[in-house]
Amino acid sequence: MFNYIVKRLLLAILILIGASLIIFFLVRLMPTDYVDQKFAAAVAQGNMLPEDLARMKELYGLSGSIWNGYLTWLKNTLSGNLGDSFIYQKPVVDVLVEKMGISFVLSLIATILQFIIAIPLGIVSATKQYGVADYTVTVLAMMGISLPSFFFAALLMRVFSIELGWFPLQGMVDATRMIETGSLEYYLDILHHLVLPMVVLVVLSIGGLMRYTRTNMLEVLNSDYIRTARAKGVSEHSVVYKHAFRNTLIPLVTMMAGILPGLFAGAMITETVFAIPGIGQASYNAVIQGDVPFIMTYNLFGSALAIIGVLLSDIMYAVVDPRVKLGG
């Protein structure tokens, strides 16, 4: 096990370098950059000469060849200097820490609700195959898989914010009220603002997990040992929830690979639509404006979390299924 983990971590370093190389080249190949956008009006009005624009690009490290720029970025990163965000004008690490908290809380609550809702529904769908419950769950799952997040978010905002007025339209706190920061009312106001974003995240994520649980459950219920347990007179409740469900969890463990980066990466589209100042919205703004240091750090962090998630998934798979052995 130890040798396996060491090998995977060494391989992860090569993967991160390769991912950073691809991301940096894609960012630098964008048709415009942060300096072009920031000073576009000044150049158009003749207040800035091309020579001045070139000096600004050199100041921001956007001049020269892409390869030299990548090597400079890599050297600084390996020395612990991730650079300053062009947009926020402060260290990228500080921006990530500042923006990540709300995204983590939002994603964590949505993930917990996703598992609490999707797994039981998947089990019910499998045990009631071709029944009303099965078809209902299937329709809900297809809706969750098919609906675009921005469309579903706009629909909820239209109905529950504009028409009914039950929930705030956007933002994190009510700017029209004087609420003491840190008070119970303050946190309740934040929770009130996060209801609709959470609904979007949960509804659009439970579909795949419900179908995955249903498929695995049906496969286990048709196994020989389940038929043997039923033949011995074991109650259906014990067959489903004691024997079948435990083995259904084994494939679900593989989904851990996507949970870890999802908790920290934020929900870019949902946060942008609801104007939530999280890491997802910040990354969207960074991509739009060509904030190279922020884009690189954000994606490198996400890549590292994805690699760690896959490694944890493999380890947990070996833990829950003794038949799986990790190579040394």
Specify the number of helices. Answer: 15
Broad CATH class of the domain at 95-291? Mainly Alpha
Average pLDDT across residues? 80
Number of strands: 0
In the predicted model, the low-confidence regions spanning at least 5 consecutive residues are none
Write down the overall geometry.
globular
Order of helices and strands: HHHHHHHHHHHHHHH
CATH architecture of the domain at 95-291: Orthogonal Bundle
Portion of residues within helices? over 70%
CATH topology of the domain at 95-291: MetI-like fold
Rounded radius of gyration (Å) = 25 Å
Biggest sheet overview: none
Structural class: mainly alpha
Q: CATH homologous superfamily of the domain at 95-291?
A: MetI-like
Distance between the termini: 6 Å
Describe the overall structure.
The chain has 328 residues and is mostly helical. It has a domain at 95-291: MetI-like (MetI-like fold, Orthogonal Bundle), CATH 1.10.3720.10. Helices cover 75% and strands 0% of the residues. It has helices at 2-28, 34-38, 40-44, 50-59, 66-78, 92-127, 132-146, 149-163, 184-221, 224-231, 236-252, 256-265, 268-273, 279-289, 292-320. The longest helix is centred in the middle third of the chain and has 38 residues, at 184-221. The chain is globular and about 85 Å long. The mean pLDDT is 80.
